[in-house]
Each structure stands twice: as C-alpha cells, then as structure tokens.
Known about the structure:
It is a single chain. By secondary structure, this protein is mostly helical. The protein is 38% helix and 0% strand. It is built from two helices and no strands. The longest helix is centred in the N-terminal third of the chain and has 22 residues, at 17-38.
Amino acid sequence: xxxxxxxxxxxHQPWSxxxxxxxxxxxxxxxxxVLLANHRTSWxxxxxxxxxxxxxxxxFVTYYIEQNPVVKKLVEKPAEWVASxxxxxxxxxxxxxxxxxxx
Length: 103
C-alpha cells in the first residue's frame, strides 16, 4: 500500500504490541522516508489492532489483507502484489496452531 501496511502476527513475551509497533514503524520509517517523500506521500499515523480469536476470524483477516491492494486498484489479483502473503503461503501456519475452533 502506498500509505500503510497490514500484518497478521502473534506476539510472545517479552514483546508488547506498543513496543513491537514502535520498533517496526521506526524500521519501516528509516527504510522508506526518502522514497515516500519523493512520491509526495507519507505513512498513516498510528495503528489499528484486532485480536484474532478464532480460525474463522483468522481466515477473514487474511482474506482482507490479501484483497486490500485489489480493492485499492493497485493490482488485479492478490498474488500480483509482491509483498502479499498471497505470494508466500509458506509464511502462514495453517491452521494457526493456537486457534483450534472453527467458529
């Protein structure tokens, strides 16, 4: 995405979400600040979190993330987005081991 990114991950101790996001956004900011300035855009401020509790919700969030570049008309198919998990199913654990229900 030109101004934001999506990620689906699980954190384990000692990480907290605010600490992880601070480190992740600092890294992304350093790597992209010049590129974004050249394109006259910037990252959205802050982040939104969702606690995924079920396998069904995991599948929905994965679908939403993979469809985002299609909805934004950046590509026609999710797999065409280079940074998409639609290209890298090996990065997904299926089923997510700590989600044993199907609701």
